[in-house]
């Protein structure tokens, strides 16, 4: 045994004291002491190097001061019941609401109910392989989803995982799926238009960037077509798009994907798909992932358009979950917090001021009505949350008037203040004229005699209604719409028969593209009709009138 000096014995004593203060097992402490004895024994055979024992012991003292032992407590639960995408667990004493829980088969779930003796977890994957008696472990984390610019042009599930077989996506960051909406101080007024490419909307129910406009109507009346046309109209602009499909048929999703790809906007659009076969938890989370991705883009100073297709099925998925979680049903069997479900989603759509990046999220939620009943529970909830609604009428659709928008019930409470001066100057009285036409046309249908002025009003209304008709997936740029509405309001279509209005419009736009493209550029960049533009417009329309007469003769 090596004889230690007084200094070495003091250092060894200090080492043992430090070792006693550390929460290590007795065997670990003995192992440290054995290591010191071994090192001292090795050094004792080196003769002159024996004084270095001081440095050796001092280094070990410093080492013991930096040692720390971390104890991690894991909350464990036991599966009591599982089925229909929901698992009931006992145990998990320290688990929190919306915390993630991991099951033996690797599937994760999110806690949505807390009770004194059990917790209810919604599964974020298949429940195959989960049985009663299995252990589940709390992770201590909330649900985080990946976001980033790389998600544009891809098809994703509600957890941010690609399902288009184009490879993995490196995320820019991870975000919580729930987030408090920006406050009033962070927001800016809606004063910039968002054109949908649909003439009747851009003229009479205009939208602004940062607005929430509800699209509602019965099944098979063209709601999804309007939303997809709005995305198609963003081609060549700086607007990024997010399309959220909730419980839609696979054929509908594939069709939407093909339309966006053929329209050249897929590269600036992210598709979030929750199919009808997916667990109800994924259908419930789908729109929240979509708006979280949109918020990331907005935080980069971008303008984003997000479509929720549709929130009726989202409400049905949440009702299914709530009934499985034994929550008391309210009106129409929906849970009592169904209003809060959609309000906290749609309130996240806004326009930020310049101090916060100046980005915006424009939301187009879609809801399905039954037999035109817009006073049902979910539609009235969404009407009160949004800034206006576009109502589609089944009777108009069946008559062939497409898009089948009911002007009397449709309104935009914000977009008028964001409408471009050029558009506003040519459509100022159109909505009133259309409403008056529909009113007097009812009397004319019953054979009531009308005077000459009323008859002209009816003919003008018929031409306007025909002009507002539009083929699906053929959005029209704003300058082209201004030219058509100017021609109508300045009597260039008065002697054109109603049946020829569509052909007249197409030929007029083709003529302008060929012979006066500067007119379109001037309207696009000046955004108002000054004297020079009006003069050029009048000259172009007069030239086209000559061309049209020759066209009719041929």
Q: Can you offer a commentary on this structure?
A:
The protein is α/β, with parallel strands linked by helices and 554 residues long. The protein folds into 4 domains: 6-66, no CATH class; 76-144, Elongation Factor Tu (Ef-tu), domain 3, CATH 2.40.30; 146-172 and 189-419, 3-Layer(aba) Sandwich (Rossmann fold); 425-553, Lysin (Up-down Bundle). Helices cover 42% and strands 16% of the residues. It is built from 18 helices and 16 strands. The chain has helices at 6-21, 26-44, 53-66, 199-204, 223-232, 250-262, 280-299, 311-324, 338-346, 377-385, 394-398, 421-427, 430-445, 452-468, 478-489, 501-515, 517-526, 531-553, and strands at residues 76-83, 86-91, 99-102, 108-114, 118-123, 135-142, 144-147, 155-156, 173-176, 214-217, 239-246, 269-274, 303-309, 360-368, 388-391, 411-412. The protein has an 8-stranded mixed beta sheet, sandwiched between helices. Strand 1 (76-83) and strand 2 form a beta hairpin. Helix 15 (478-489) crosses helix 17 (517-526). The longest helix is centred in the last third of the chain and has 23 residues, at 531-553. The chain is elongated. The termini are far apart. The relative contact order is 0.09. Mean pLDDT is 87; it is low at 44-51.
């Amino acid at each position: 045994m090596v004889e230690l000096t007084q200094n070495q014995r003091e250092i060894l004593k200090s080492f043992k004291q430090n070792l006693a203060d550390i929460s290590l097992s007795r065997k670990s402490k003995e192992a440290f002491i054995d290591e010191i004895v071994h090192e001292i024994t090795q050094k004792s055979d080196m003769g002159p190097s024996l004084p270095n024992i001081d440095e050796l012991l001092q280094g070990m003292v410093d080492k013991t001061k930096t040692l720390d032992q971390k104890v991690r407590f894991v909350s464990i639960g036991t599966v009591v019941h599982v089925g229909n995408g929901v698992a009931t667990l006992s145990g998990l004493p320290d688990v929190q609401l919306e915390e993630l829980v991991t099951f033996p088969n690797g599937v994760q779930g999110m806690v949505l109910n807390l009770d004194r003796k059990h917790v209810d977890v919604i599964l974020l994957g298949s429940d195959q392989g989960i049985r009663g008696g299995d252990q589940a472990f709390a992770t201590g984390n909330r649900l985080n989803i990946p976001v980033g610019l790389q998600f544009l042009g891809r098809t994703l599930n509600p957890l941010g995982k690609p399902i288009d077989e184009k490879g993995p996506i490196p995320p820019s960051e991870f975000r919580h799926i729930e987030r408090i909406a920006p406050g009033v101080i962070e927001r800016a007024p809606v004063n910039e238009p968002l054109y949908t490419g649909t003439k009747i909307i851009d003229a009479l129910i205009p939208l602004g960037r940062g607005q929430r406009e509800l699209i509602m109507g019965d099944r098979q009346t063209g709601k999804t077509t309007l939303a997809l046309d709005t995305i198609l109209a963003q081609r060549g602009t700086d607007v990024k798009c997010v399309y959220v499909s909730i419980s839609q048929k696979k054929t509908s999703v594939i069709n939407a994907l093909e339309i966006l790809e053929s329209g050249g906007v897929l590269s600036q659009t992210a598709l979030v798909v929750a199919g009808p076969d997916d667990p109800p938890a994924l259908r419930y989370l789908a729109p929240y992932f979509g708006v979280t991705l949109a918020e990331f883009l907005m935080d980069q100073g971008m303008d984003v358009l997000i479509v929720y297709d549709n929130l009726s099925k989202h409400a049905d998925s949440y009702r299914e979950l709530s009934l499985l979680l034994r929550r008391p049903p309210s009106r129409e069997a929906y849970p009592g917090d169904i209003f809060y479900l959609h309000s906290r989603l749609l309130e996240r759509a806004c326009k930020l001021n310049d101090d916060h990046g100046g980005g915006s999220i424009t939301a187009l939620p879609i809801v399905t009505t039954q037999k035109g009943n817009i006073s049902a529970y979910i539609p009235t909830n969404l009407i009160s949350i949004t800034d206006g609604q576009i109502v589609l009428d089944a009777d108009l659709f069946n008559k062939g008037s497409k898009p089948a928008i009911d002007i009397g019930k449709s309104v935009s409470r914000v977009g008028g203040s964001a409408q471009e001066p050029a558009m506003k100057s040519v459509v100022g009285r159109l909505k009133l004229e259309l409403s008056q036409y529909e009113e007097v046309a009812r009397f004319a249908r019953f054979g009531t005699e009308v005077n000459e002025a009323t008859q002209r009003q009816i003919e003008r209304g018929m031409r306007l209604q025909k002009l507002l008709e539009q083929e699906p997936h053929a959005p029209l740029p704003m300058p082209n719409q201004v030219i058509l509405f100017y021609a109508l309001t300045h009597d260039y279509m008065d002697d054109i028969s109603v049946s020829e209005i569509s052909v007249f419009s197409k030929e007029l736009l083709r003529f302008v593209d060929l012979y006066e493209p500067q007119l379109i550029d001037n309207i696009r960049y000046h955004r108002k009709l000054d004297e020079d533009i009006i003069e050029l417009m009048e000259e172009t329309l007069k030239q086209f009138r000559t061309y049209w007469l020759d066209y009719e003769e041929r």
